[in-house]
Amino acid sequence: MITELTEGDLPAAAEALGRGGLDWLVGSARDTGNGLAWTETTTDEELDPTLYSGTAGIVLALLEGREHFGDDRYGDAAARGALTLAVAAEEWDVSSLYTGLTGMAVALRAVHGLLGDTAAGAAADRAMERVRSRFDGTRWDDRWFDLLIGNAGIALGALAVGDDELAVRAVTPYLRTAERTAGGVQWESLSGAPARFHHLSHGTLGIAYALAAVGRQAGRPDLTELAVAGASDVAARNEAGPAGFLVPHSDPQHVPDRIERYSYGWCHGPTGDAQAFRLLAAALQDPSWSALADGCWHTVTHSGLPQRLRPGFWDNNGRCCGTAGVLALACDRHVEHGDGLDFANTLVTDLASRSIEDAAGVCWSNLEHRATPSELTPQTGWGMGNAGIVRELLRYARLGTGRDAAYAVDWPDHPAADADPASSAGPGPA
Predict the structure, then answer these.
(1) Per-residue pLDDT tens digits for 48-77
(2) 96, 285, 288, 366: most buried, per Cβ within 10 A?
(3) How many CB atoms lie within 10 A of CB 356?
(4) What is the C-alpha to C-alpha distance for residues 54 and 43, in angstroms, rounded to an integer?
(5) How far apart are the first and last CA of the chain?
(6) For residues 24 and 160, what is the distance between their CA atoms, to the nearest angstrom?
(7) Please, which residues have CB within 8 angstroms of residue 234's CB and are 6 or more apart in sequence?
């Protein structure tokens, strides 16, 4: 655990934590005989090839490490991870971005692009052909119709690997399934559930993000207009007043005995909402969307996070619903608006204080206040573990020392940050 850091120490400390986190990932890999693979935690037995919690997301973090440090150890590990991804993609029966073939293809395409690995590129093509063949004309998953698991995420993954035609096909069903509301439109993102989700991972804003990205890339104003209608529905639900932005998790509240009504991270809160509004602002050149992103940032920075104000309020260090996801937005704000790194410094200090260092490197443990013991086994992947945290720490370290803030590989649902937002309107080929 690193403590008592001064502001001037933070970029170097973040870089050291990033290297330690990468080393921990390399050391936790399983050698399959055909390449490297990872499980969700080091105590699991089942290999996980996915973007969210397994090998695909880890491969992208290793590529980030290779580009940041110029260290071929990380590139070699990424290439060996691509070997197992190619094998897993031959049999994986889920098509989605975060839990399926589309996310695996994104990682394979990135290995091809950065390492010149043509076999990885060919495997990405085969994976996306399987995705294409599984489309029934409306959807891929019989339960979810969202960004994390459903059509919206597949569309963004298709854009990321350069398949614009599939991206259009993936979002077209949203035109006929939209439900009109007082504020715009929404969708049934979980089949049969009364709840309508509002945010990026499972809800309306994730679908709106995909519609806006595809509409702009494909020159389809009908898709862009529907994106605006979806985002307008969410904007109309703001309960934070003119200075902030805070919308409930869902309406009616989904499983209220287990899920809090308000969240603040990427998945169901203003951290992720701001990313959708950033995209719309850049795509439409409309400052009203930038104002909503500003409101999101106001709410995030005044919420009390990363303090653990009460059990369950802020128990996660990761990219999906924790501190690393907020750090990504803090760095975006600095690049695009010159906000400075004060809040980013607070987040990095917190990540440093919660890091676990041993001979294997550095990792992080999240908390579950309803479990005993509450400290969970450290995770490897992008969503809740090392891969997502490392990626954001290394970017912060570059920003803090005046280097290039760009990622080695842009994430499909994270608009690239640029001092000129008009040039950062959506994902492109990896």
Answers:
(1) 999 999 999 999 999 999 999 999 999 999
(2) 96
(3) 15
(4) 13
(5) 35
(6) 28
(7) 183, 184, 198, 199, 203, 204, 205, 208, 247, 273
SS3 content of the chain, % helix, strand, coil (to 5): 50, 5, 45
- The DSSP bridge partners found for residue 179 are 186
Q: Which residues fall within 8 angstroms of residue 80, CB to CB, at 6 or more apart?
A: 29, 35, 36
pLDDT, tens digit, 9 for 90 and up, residues 253-268: 999 999 999 999 999 9
341: helix, strand or coil? coil
> How far is Cα 321 from Cα 266, in angstroms, rounded to an integer?
5
C-alpha–C-alpha distance, residues 35 and 156, integer Å: 28
Q: What is the spatial distance between Cα 73 and Cα 114, in angstroms, rounded to a whole number?
A: 14
Kindly state the DSSP code that residue 320 receives in the 8-state scheme: T
pTM of the model: 0.96
Residue 412: DSSP 8-state? T
Place of tokens 């073939």: 101
Contact between 183 and 233 (Cβ < 8 Å)? yes
